[in-house]
Amino acid sequence: MTQAAPEPVFEQPWHAQVFALTVAMNEAGRIEWPDWAARFSATLKRDGLDRDLDGGDDYFRAWLATLEAMLAEQGAAPASEVRILRDAWEEAFLTTSHGQPVRVRDG
Amino acid sequence: MPHDDPDHPHALMPPDPALRVKALETILTRKGLIDPAALDEIIDTYQNRIGPKNGARVVARAWCDPEFRQALLTDANPVLAGLGYYGRQGEHMVVVENTPRQHNMVVCTLCSCYPWPLLGIPPGWYKSDAYRARAVREPRKVLAEFGVTLPADTAIRVWDSTAEIRYLVLPMRPEGTEGLAEDELAELVSRDSMIGTGLPKVPS
Fold first, then answer.
1. CATH 3.90.330.10: does it fit domain B50-195?
2. Active-site residue, from B64, B113, B128, B161
3. CATH 3.90.330.10 domain extents, chain B
4. Most buried pick, A80, A89, A93, B181, via CB within 10 A?
5. pLDDT tens profile A21-47
6. Would you call B26 exposed, middle or buried from its count of C-beta atoms within 10 A (0-12, 13-18, 19+)?
7. Given an 8 Å threshold on Cβ–Cβ distance, is A37 in contact with B123?
8. What is the pLDDT of residue B1?
9. Rounded CA gap, A30 and A76, in Å?
């Protein structure tokens, strides 16, 4: 459980991104922190039923699933829109040459 | 362009969750709900500017200044706000002091509530099921795994954080530090000593 070497604050860039998105939505008044903690706790509990969460990637996957659910419910980011944009980003990564900035076209 | 043309390798494909995060970011930005520059600012803050050094400064000052210590233990919020360490999520900060009779340890059994302004982002183990489940059940054993052995007559109190209340442990000032200045003392205050899973370093 203990770790000798100093750990990076965020192991993966997307961990930092999903964290920042959530904090930004909280600061914009779209997510109340007690609601967030309750929902996130529920996700962690569900995910931890059949395996032990290590607090790393699985932790942020649960974080993302919680954020997606909350934003879908409030209509800010419906699941259907998220799927379309996710695929658009995948396509953009596949069709952008290495070293070039990856962008999706304005919908 | 063909997807797997070896002469034109495409940009490195991020993992699925990263694509979903990008999708959310794009949607929320297009709707004007977030500003990408604000996201960068938040990441920079937590990656580079907020961390256990903040908490260490508070602890060192409490060791040197009895009035500050008393104010911190009575109601930490105004004291910390005065130093610029206020919770972005509007949480209430409580500082709990270690004594020879009682050692304090912080956990969040439900998720990972943590005093961000003072300690930054929690380490992986703090977020793990193992720590969250065992800190309350067998704190002495967990402490031993962190290399901390306390006298048998020191009670261990475990504080369970919530979205509303976050805890910071005020560790005991190590012996032999009488001559040290505040900023030298701060160097001795480790992150784990402020979570209660460690003790301050002893000056060599």
1. yes
2. B113
3. 50-195
4. A89
5. 999 999 999 999 989 999 999 999 898
6. buried
7. no
8. 42
9. 9
**Chain B residues touching A48 at Cβ < 8 A:** 129
User: What phi and psi values does residue B8 have, to the nearest 5 degrees?
Assistant: -130, 70
Tell me the per-residue pLDDT of B164-192, one tens digit each, with 9 for 90 and over: 899 999 999 999 999 999 999 999 999 99
Quote the CA–CA distance of B91 and A2 in Å, as a whole number: 28
* A94/B129 Cβ within 8 A: no
Query: pLDDT digit string (tens) for B127-165?
Result: 998 999 999 999 999 999 999 999 999 999 999 998 889
d(CA A3, CA B111) in angstroms, rounded, equals 20
**ipTM score for this prediction:** 0.90
Indicate if B204 belongs to the active site.
no
Q: Quick one: tokens of A10?
A: 């965020």
Q: How many CB atoms lie within 10 A of CB B57?
A: 18
Contact A21 B38 (CB under 8 A): no
- Distances from the Cα of A68 to the Cα of A78, A98, B18, B42, B163, angstroms: 8, 29, 13, 20, 20
Nearest residue to B25 via CA among B16, B37, B34, B15: B34
Is there a catalytic annotation at residue B64?
A: no
Selected catalytic residue, list B64, B112, B128, B190: B112
pLDDT at B22 over 80: yes
Chain A residues with CB under 8 Å of B147 CB are 2
